[in-house]
Structure formats: structure tokens, C-alpha cells
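USER: Please consider what follows.
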Amino acid sequence: MSMDQSLLRIILENHILKSKVVLGQLFNGQQLETIGGRFLRVFIYRSAVCIENACLIRGSKEGSNGALHLMRTLLKPAENTMFQILTENGGFKIFLSLMEDAGLTDLLKQEGDFTLFAPSDKAFAGLSSSDLSLLRSDTDALRTILLYHINNGIFIGGGLESGVTNLLKSLQGSNLRVMFANSSMQVNSVLVPESDIMATNGVVHFVNQVLYPADIPVGNQDWLMLLKRLISYMQIKYISGFRYQEIPLTFMKRTVTRVIQEVPDERKVTRIIQGEPTITKVTRVIEGQPSITKVTRVIEGSQFSSSYGTTNIALEGTDISGLANTEEDSDRLARIIQAGRTRKTGSRRVLDGTRRRARD
């Protein structure tokens, strides 16, 4: 049940665009982004406007919160390329094999806008292995047949005007006659049993017969018999000696691949340190003898006195009380001290008052 709900949500999101787009704003080749993050392509034909393989019904409405477009069928964004669609189907093995032999497989994979009328394995049911070998033997002939099934441009059944024959120029160069009538598509009067399978690079229509350009003759009997077994809806022209011409593959996108023919050299670089690592020890050297500053504190105070006498001591010399602790003052102090050693300092002891009585 959860898977069904999830699928339903995806289907509904495919029908709602992120922004409001009215009918007059649509143009051919436009891509519309849905709220689910997917893209829908717009195709405008002479009498129809289609989004993917669903065409609009006349009478789109514009409201205050958006625009409403009525569609004939459900919308589904394309997910796979033409090559993936045919491969997953499993009923187009011979056609895919022939495309590979002709070097055209990349055409089904590359980006673009193509219409492919893909012949199923039923279309080759009457061929033997020798017939297939003959078909593969002439690359120009094989490309002529295969490229006649592909048109440059996307044409879906609902976009074609009903009952009108439309001429679509194939990649081979001749026209395909396509008509949509009675809710079915025909190409060169061959019924298309399943149509409008949308691919990321175009649209695929299934056919059960091989298509062949009416204006291209056959040049030998073997090829004439081969094509008669393949094609029953038309007469094949025969012109003796006719040869198929090479078709320029200008519509193919070239892919350039660079091939390296030898094993690249592998180089591993290792940094080698020879010997023990060098350790440098730096010692800061201070030149000269360190200066030592010696400061002597001189205390000056009152004279010493006692009841027996007074002693006055006077120091002669220079007053050093104003010297600061600087290198210049240290030198000056040293000179003062040196000078003081050579000078005699006199002291006088004075006894005042009554002389001290000697002991008896």
C-alpha cells in the first residue's frame, strides 16, 4: 500500500509545475519543471500543443493562484534513451544488432530530438542467416535502410492533424509519409501498433515491417529478393548496377577517447636525510668584567655624650650621600674611596667637664 501511495504522489507531482505558466507562454522545445524536480518538454504543432506525449484540450483557464490546462492523457516525464527503451523491451534484438554493425548505435544513445520508427524482430522474421549476412555485407546499403527509419525532430501521434499526410524527412534523405487517423498512426501505409513511447532523446514508434525509401532502387538480384522478403507493402525498383551511396553522418556526435598504450611510470620520491641531524647550541657571551656596585650608607647624627664626658668624632672627606646607584656614580665613588686612603684623617677626643676620678 505504501508503494502505491508513493507512486500516486509521483504521478500527481508530474502534473504540477513550480511556477505559473499560461498557454500564451508556451513555446516549442520549452522545458517545464515540476514540483517534483522533473522536467516536461513542450511540443507545438500546427494544430496542437503537447507536453510530452499528452496534448492539451482547448480551453485552458487562468486563475488567481495559477493556470489550469486540461490534458488528454496522463503526463509522464521521459526517463530512458531510445537505446535503453529498445533494449529493455527485448523485442528489437535484430534491429539493435544491425545498428551496431552499421556503426549507428551511438545515435540511439546521444542527446537529441529524434523520431524513430523501430522495426521489431517480427519485421525480420522471414530472413535466414544468409539473408542477414547479405544485409550486413554492404554498409552503405545497411545505413540507407536503417537511417530511413529515423527523423530529426519529435513527432507524436496526438500532435499530427487527423487525416492529413505529413512528410517527415528522414536522416537518409527521403521522406516518410506519416498520417494519424482513427486514433492510430500509419507510416508509409504501415500500421504503427504502438506509438508515442517517450525517450530522453526523442520518441519511439514500433512497427512490424521494415521501411524502405520508394525512390531508391536496387542494383542486383540478390538484394532485390532480400528486400521482397522484407517489404510487402510496396514495389521495389530495380536498376542493374545501381550502387548505394555513402551517407555523411553529420548528425552523429563524435566522442573522442584518448587511449594510453602503455602503463604510466610510477615514481615515488622519498626524502633522505644523510647522517645525524645537526644540533646547534648557542651561548650568549658577555664581554668584560661584570660591574659590582657597593654602596656604603653613612649615617650622620648627634654627638655622643655622657655624664662623664663628651666625645666628638668628625670624618673628613667628600660627601657621598648624593651619589645614586649608576655606573657613572659607581666610578666616582671608587675614586673618592681611593683618594681617602692616601689622606690622613684626624680625630680629636675632647674631655669636657670634671675629670674622672681614679680608683683608690
